[in-house]
Design goal:
268 residues; alpha/beta; 11 helices; Rossmann fold; 7-stranded mixed β-sheet
Length: 268
């Protein structure tokens, strides 16, 4: 597997980091679209711990960039980029948090409440059944459950999809064991948030930070902005109208999303 995947020509000014954990390949449409303007990297995370993914990302960037880069992470990838920037600040000229998960546990319940409003009764039952059995499942079953859960989540988290979904390499062609990756990494991440350490680390972010969030995202925007702005001095926030958790898949928000990423990258 080539890692990072490269789009456009060097020098590479932007790296887009997938969520999940274990959602390899989901940022391919974003990298492709922006590669017409500058070189873009798409790192793939296959390590099964937070520290492993941080160092894996370092290896990817170290092999491909000549100067600090704009680092944009989606969902879990936003947290990964945040943690990476704290450990390796010399690599990052600007940090962009796209549809980040909230930084405090008080916002967690609202995520599922927001999602189930958009699912029918059968889908709601299936959604909670999968969540309840994810922990402790064998790897093969977990991968199947995560794939189905991802479909349910996207149905709930996309307000109005673009007419033609962009091509994206299926995750199973990029990384095996996505279920195991999700289980191990997210269990660490959840503990980091619950302990308060995740938010406490915000004081160590020195580069400019941009938050991009859909106004209809199931992950509450205030759960990202309010806690982190107390510690981060250089912060710019954008909310996208008629937009859920996946801005590049939204009919009414994708152009604005791409224009923000272009402007934020070229300004760095």
């Amino acid at each position: 597997m080539i890692n990072p995947r490269k789009y456009g020509k060097a020098p590479f000014r932007l790296a887009v980091v997938h969520g999940g954990p274990g959602g390899a390949g989901e940022m391919e449409p974003v990298a492709t679209a922006l590669s017409f303007y500058f070189g873009v990297l798409e790192p793939i995370q296959s390590a099964k711990s937070i520290h492993g993914q941080i160092d894996e990302l370092k290896d990817c960037l170290e092999s491909a960039i000549e100067r600090p880069i704009v680092l944009a992470g989606h969902s879990w990838g936003a947290w990964l980029c945040y943690l990476f920037t704290i450990k390796y600040p010399e690599f990052v000229g600007k940090l962009i948090l796209v549809s980040s998960a909230p930084f405090e546990t008080s916002y967690i319940e609202q995520i599922s409440l927001n999602r189930i409003k958009k699912l029918n009764e059968q889908e709601r039952t299936e959604y909670f059944d999968i969540l309840n059995r994810l922990h402790g499942s064998d790897s093969e079953k977990m991968c199947a459950d995560l794939s189905r859960l991802g479909n349910l989540v996207k149905k709930a988290d996309i307000i109005e999809p673009i007419d033609k979904l962009p091509f994206s390499t299926p995750a199973n062609e990029l990384t095996k064991n996505s279920g195991e990756i999700h289980e191990r990494v997210w269990s660490e991440a959840a503990k980091l948030r619950a302990s308060g350490e995740l938010l406490e680390l915000a004081k160590d972010i020195k580069c400019p930070v941009t938050i991009v969030h859909g106004e209809n995202d199931s992950h509450p925007f205030e759960g990202v902005k309010k806690p982190s702005q107390k510690s981060i001095d250089k912060m710019q926030c954008y909310t996208l109208k008629q937009c859920g958790h996946y801005p590049w898949l939204e009919k009414h928000a994708c152009e604005k999303f791409y224009s923000i990423l272009r402007a934020e990258t070229t300004a760095c």
